[in-house]
Amino acid sequence: MRSAHTVHDVRAAEAALMARLPEGALMQRAAAGLAAVCAGVLGGAYGTRVVLLVGSGANGGDALYAGARLARRGASVTAVLLSPGKAYPDGLAALRSAGGRTTADPAAGEELVRRADLVVDGIVGIGGRGGLRGAAVPLARAAAGSGAAVVAVDLPSGVDADTGEVAGEAVRADVTVTFGTHKPGLLVDPAAGFAGTVHLVDIGLGPDLPGPAVQALQHADVAALLPVPGARSDKYRRGVLGVAAGSARYPGAAVLAVAGALHGGAGAVRYAGSAAREVIARFPETLVSTGRPSQAGRVQAWAVGPGAGEDASARVALEDALASDVPVLVDADGLRHLKGLGRPARGALAGRTAEVLLTPHAGEAAALLDVAREDVEARRLEHVRRLADAYGATVLLKGSTTLVAAPGGGPVRANPTGTGWLATAGSGDVLSGLAGSLLASGLSAFDAGSAAAYLHGLAGRRAAGRDGAPFGAHELAGELPAAWRDVRGAAH
Ligand SMILES: NC(=O)C1=CN([C@@H]2O[C@H](COP(=O)(O)OP(=O)(O)OC[C@H]3O[C@@H](n4cnc5c(N)ncnc54)[C@H](O)[C@@H]3O)[C@@H](O)[C@H]2O)[C@@H](O)CC1
Ligand SMILES: Nc1ncnc2c1ncn2[C@@H]1O[C@H](COP(=O)(O)OP(=O)(O)O)[C@@H](O)[C@H]1O
Ligand SMILES: [K+]
């Protein structure tokens, strides 16, 4: 599990740890880790050209001390000082005594950046507010346009550490070396997309950190969540998922949701709705009926909404499922009907004894919250939390770095496995069936949503292949067993 903490929590932990350590010890730990990663990126420091972009705070201090270490190993190091009077004085002295140079001329700095092998971004770290300003903007652009590798110190300058927002210009890093713990912006888009490969340097903050604000599952975490049948299992004990999806207009959504469900751990899938004929033709193992969910027989969870359309039967299916005493996943058209139930947001779901998992994309989340889609996309973390609290439900916000939030606070899970190739029609339907199936097999809405997003992302990467190629959602479903095996294999 990778954990990320807010700036407030990082600063509190640093203060507590610093009080027990000699002055400057933390920064030396950070600089040593940073220099080691830089040397690795360079394939050895000797004879290389390194440019440090140095701002006015301790983030620039880290860059200067790391630059001094690289200079001692034979690199030619120049620091471009963006606030010459304020650059971290002891770091500056260390760089100079190691043979490093400095310049306060931005134009000269840009020229150096263009010829560099490595650019170290020490403009701002967790003290940053808003996008890059002044001379930092052309320097960041020059770095992006040069052949140099760009290593960000703690986080790419210009991105928001806590929210993942990128409000203006920001550094595009190939590698980010972060200290003590991840920051939410390193796991959540759009900021995460600026970070490149993230290395965590342990500076000893662990014991002083509270619970994380954001976490990202890894293979072993998902393997521990996935249901595995045992000697006493039968199809009912493994859990039965009911799928109420598809319509005369969109029968394919039912087929794709069932395809996802058959690969999600439930022992059986019941389909209820107007696409029963299409579903049974493709998946003979499905138990189909054409009536409403309440007439379909016993299930352990419902997945409702993909391709359900706007007519009354889709609304009835949602109301039926919500009236049951089992967990319900609501997606796509189901979300529209949920909003249309007309009662206060929480009221539609209040009184349920079992969990609800909502799976909107940004547009659907925006409609549920009555905000603009761009606001959801810019501040995904804030909006997934707001939605979970407003509806009293667990929310899986789809898109680049899918997020899962439970109501009432606690960490938000950011999915690390996604790929833009997943943005293909019907891929959300597969996810609904998959997550619903995990719900039916007994996982909590939070675990079912995050494990499903993880497997779905892995399957997407497999379907796209190493070099990347488009695929259809049915092919994505076909990769789910291999994604399970990847995850379970890594746990052994
Ligand atoms: N506190 C600690 O013990 C440690 C801190 N470390 C480093 O210290 C960093 C935090 O240092 P600081 O608190 O000094 O803050 P930063 O160095 O992140 O930035 C603060 C400075 O940047 C300016 N600034 C803010 N937003 C800006 C923007 N958009 N454009 C240009 N300038 C901007 C501020 O006016 C302020 O002078 C961490 O990110 C990490 O790199 C590490 O050395 C590890 C130990
Ligand atoms: N840029 C992206 N990066 C990663 N995943 C994405 C991106 N865009 C979309 N996805 C994923 O693709 C799927 C699309 O689902 P959805 O929007 O419901 O489409 P549909 O309704 O056609 O199935 C979701 O799992 C979503 O997280
Ligand atoms: K930085």
TrEMBL record:
Keywords: ATP-binding, Isomerase, Lyase, Metal-binding, Multifunctional enzyme, NAD, NADP, Nucleotide-binding, Potassium. Residues 10-211 form the YjeF N-terminal domain. (6S)-NADPHX binds at residues 58-62, 125-131, 154, 253, 307, 361, 429. The keyword Coiled coil does not apply. Gene3D superfamilies: 3.40.1190.20, YjeF N-terminal domain (3.40.50.10260). It holds the Pfam family Carb_kinase. Its cofactor is K(+); Mg(2+). Binds 1 potassium ion per subunit. Its EC number is 4.2.1.136, 5.1.99.6. AMP binds at K398, G399, S400, T401, T402, G428. Homotetramer. Belongs to the NnrD/CARKD family. HAMAP family: NADHX_dehydratase, NADHX_epimerase. This is Bifunctional NAD(P)H-hydrate repair enzyme. The gene is nnrE.
